[in-house]
Structures are given as structure tokens and as C-alpha cells.
Design goal:
The complex is a heterodimer. By secondary structure, chain A is mostly helical. Chain A has helices at residues 3-16, 29-49, 52-56, 60-75, 80-86. Chain B has two domains: 1-97, RNA polymerase sigma factor, region 2, helix turn helix motif (Rna Polymerase Sigma Factor, Chain: A), CATH 1.10.1740; 98-187, Orthogonal Bundle (Arc Repressor Mutant, subunit A). Chain B has nine helices and no strands. Chain B is elongated and about 60 Å long. Classes of the chains: A mainly alpha, B mainly alpha.
Chain lengths: 87, 187
């Protein structure tokens, strides 16, 4: 492709594609801040679910039951379907 | 494109996750990032959303930023990737919506006479052919041929060599001419 053809293609492209104003017309920070806050809220929700205070509120008996289930599953893996059946 | 760089302390604070430093950088670079994106996607509304997406990725990647390097160049590279993703998904949607037969303009030869109708038709065909280019080639063609950005700047933004920019531009022009020929508008 020679320079003349390239110049012609350039000119046709410039005429064909809509011209754009590259200046930003407004401040996008409020929109950005909203996005950051949304993320912070979802993070807070996850943090609240697994917060130490929440976990310590679980009775010791439930922890003991969970530990027994885990140990049982480790030592007697064939019993897993039976437990799942009773759930 | 003017690149206003920040003092290193702001960049260092940003790299450690300081939200005030992020806001300062956002306010300083939002116009530059928007300008870069809108040149590639040529849609102001989409460019605003993509600017937010770019800064969102910038925010998430703060720990990987090296304060000794240029923030503007780093943000521009992320913005280019965001724009590229947008163009790819927009192209996929367009291809799903329009079958190839529907997309083609009637295969009539374009006359060389400066008839306004013929010129309008040529522009429409050129626009269609340009939109059909793969996103990777389209971005290079937009920046090099329409925006006339230096090849080194394009190479830096795309994280490729200037040789690769030249190669992509050559392929873009060749493909564009072929598509224009298929659409009945030979240049």
C-alpha cells in the first residue's frame, strides 16, 4: 500500500466514523465512590458472617458435634452416605 | 497526550491502599483515561462506564503498582485492556444479532464520482467494514490511522513492540480493504 492509498483510506475512515469529543464533561468521582462503597458493603457482609464474635456465640456442643462428624467422616468414610441420608 | 505525573509520595500511599491517594489520582487522571478510552470505543456513554471500570481495576491492583513508574502509562495500559474487552463483547453481540447475509450491503460497485449519495454509501460501507475488524486490529487502526497517535505510544498502551503495532496495522489495512471490496466499495 503506497502513501497515497494510505492517505485516502485515512481520509475515508475519518469521514466515516463519528467524531468524538475526548473531553470529559463531568466529574466521575461520585460514580466511582458509589462503586467502591457497594464493594465495601458486600465485604462487610462477609466479614460480619464470619466475625469472631459471631463464631464464639455458637454453643460448645455444636462445635463438639461438628468435630465428631469430621472425625467420623475421616475414620469411617463409608458412613458418609448414611449420615447424608439422615440429614 | 499530556501526562501529569504525581509526586512519589502520593503514588507510594496509593500502592499501600490509601483511599485518599486513590481519590487524588482518580481526580487527576479521569479526564486523560476517559479521553484515551473514548478514542478507542467512540461512544461517550460507554467510555464513562469503562473509565469507572478501569479505575476499579486500578484500585484492585494497587499492591502491584510500582511507585517508581508512571501512573499515567500504567492506567492507560489497563484502560486499553478494558476497551479491548468491551469491543470484543460488543462485536460478539453484533455478530449474534446480525447474520452475515443481513450485514452485507448489496454488492454494487461504488462510483468514484463525488455524488453525495454515493459518498454517504461509501461511508456507511466503510463504517460497517471497520466494525467487522477483529478488536485487536481495530484498536490499532483507530489509534494509528484515525487518531494518528505515535506508534510508540500505541505499543506501550497495548504492551507490545512497535514492530507488532506495524504488523497489526498492516493486517488491519489489508483486511479492511478486503472487507470493503466484499461490500462493493473498493478504495
Amino acid at each position: 500500500m503506497n502513501d497515497h492509498e494510505e492517505a485516502k483510506l485515512r481520509s475515508v475512515l475519518k469521514q466515516s466514523l463519528p467524531a468524538v469529543n475526548a473531553e470529559l464533561g463531568r466529574d466521575l468521582w461520585p460514580q466511582m465512590r458509589r462503586r467502591l462503597e457497594e464493594r465495601a458493603v458486600s465485604r462487610t457482609w462477609v466479614a460480619a458472617l464470619f466475625a469472631p464474635a459471631r463464631l464464639s456465640a455458637v454453643p460448645w456442643f455444636d462445635w463438639a458435634l461438628l468435630a465428631a462428624l469430621v472425625l467420623g467422616a475421616c475414620f469411617f468414610p463409608r458412613s458418609i452416605p448414611i449420615w447424608l441420608y439422615h440429614l | 497526550m499530556p501526562v501529569l505525573e504525581q509526586p512519589t509520595d502520593v503514588l507510594e500511599r496509593f500502592a499501600t491502599g490509601d483511599s485518599g491517594a486513590f481519590e487524588e489520582l482518580f481526580r487527576q487522571f479521569q479526564g486523560e483515561v476517559y479521553g484515551w478510552i473514548v478514542r478507542m470505543v467512540r461512544d461517550p456513554a460507554a467510555a464513562e462506564d469503562l473509565t469507572i471500570e478501569t479505575f476499579w481495576r486500578v484500585h484492585r491492583a494497587h499492591a502491584r503498582f510500582d511507585p517508581q513508574r508512571s501512573f499515567g502509562a500504567w492506567a492507560r495500559r489497563i484502560a486499553t485492556n478494558v476497551a479491548l474487552d468491551h469491543l470484543k463483547s460488543a462485536q460478539a453481540k453484533r455478530e449474534q444479532a446480525v447474520s452475515p447475509e443481513e450485514g452485507l450491503v448489496e454488492n454494487a460497485p461504488a462510483a468514484a464520482a463525488p455524488d453525495p449519495d454515493v459518498q454517504r454509501e461509501l461511508r456507511a460501507r466503510t463504517q460497517k467494514a471497520f466494525q467487522q475488524l477483529p478488536a485487536r486490529l481495530r484498536i490499532v487502526a483507530t489509534l494509528a490511522l484515525i487518531e494518528e497517535r505515535p506508534q510508540a505510544e500505541i505499543a506501550e498502551a497495548l504492551n507490545i513492540s512497535t514492530g507488532a503495532v506495524k504488523s497489526r496495522m498492516f493486517r488491519a489495512v489489508r483486511l479492511l480493504r478486503r472487507k470493503l471490496k466484499d461490500l462493493g466499495a473498493d478504495l
